[in-house]
Design brief:
By secondary structure, the protein is an alpha+beta fold. Helices cover about 60% and strands about 10% of the residues. It contains nine helices and four strands; from the N terminus they run H-H-E-H-H-H-E-E-H-E-H-H-H. It is found in: Cell membrane.
């Protein structure tokens, strides 16, 4: 015979284990907040924009073929700008302590579709250093690309700047706490149902019928000490009266 769980039983399980659900949810949220605010290192971000476009005089005209070539070059430039040739010079000129691999991980290159502009974004615990690395990378790339590709078609559009009261890009404490709240809630609910499933103890008449399949013929109530004392006194008095009448 298949067991079915009613909606009422589900709510009863949640009500019975509500303290556990609240505890796990609150604990997960608090731990996430403490880790995000006090343990994780804030990371700041700075970006500079580079234009890939051959300089033109007033008499020269732009053509579609050249623009398409510039768009294709962006993919090549995205690789070159993070190559050891460029990063070695950036590291040396800024006297950075990190390795080339670590510096490479700090730098991200991105571009919009069909755009001749691409961005160099750097993340670092120090916002000023993030801006320095971004600007120096763009500067070194602009100078070196002429030697590497024998073409001068790179212009720095905008430099990275350090803003006052700059907000770190990560961690995001509120987002982390919201995720921890949801995960904690789901974990608490799941654990509540698991404990209920594993709990085979019989506590009520309904449990007897549910687990053993036997009808309940009657029940014996638990008497408090005061009630038991009163009952015993009453019985003693009844026996005393009975004995008196019998005489």
């Amino acid at each position: 015979m298949e067991e079915t769980i009613s909606l009422r039983e589900l709510f009863e399980t949640l009500r019975k284990r509500l303290w556990l659900i609240v505890l796990i949810t609150a604990l997960a949220t608090v731990v996430s907040g403490v880790v995000s605010y006090f343990l994780l290192t804030p990371i700041y971000q700075a970006s500079t924009q580079i234009l890939v476009n051959q300089a033109k005089s007033e008499q020269q005209m732009y053509n579609v073929g050249e623009i398409q070539t510039n768009l294709q070059l962006i993919n090549t430039y995205s690789v070159i700008i993070k190559s050891p040739t460029i990063l070695e010079k950036v590291k040396g000129e800024l006297q950075l302590d990190q390795t080339l691999d670590e510096l490479n991980e700090q730098i991200q290159v991105s571009s919009e579709k069909d755009s001749q502009v691409f961005s160099v974004t750097v993340q670092d615990p120090d916002p000023a250093m993030a801006a320095k690395i971004a600007n120096k990378t763009a500067e070194v790339f602009k100078n070196e690309i002429v030697k590497i590709m024998n073409i001068d078609n790179v212009t720095i559009l905008s430099k990275a700047e350090v803003k006052e009261d700059q907000t770190p890009v990560k961690p995001k404490p509120l987002l982390n706490m919201a995720i921890a709240f949801v995960v904690g809630l789901m974990t608490g609910v799941g654990l509540a149902f698991l404990l209920e499933y594993l709990d085979n103890t019989i506590k009520t008449e309904a449990d007897v019928e549910k687990h053993l399949g036997l009808p309940v013929l009657g029940s014996i109530s638990v008497m408090s000490p005061s009630t038991a004392k009163t009952t015993r006194t009453g019985l003693s008095m009844q026996r005393a009266r009975g004995e008196t009448v019998g005489r």
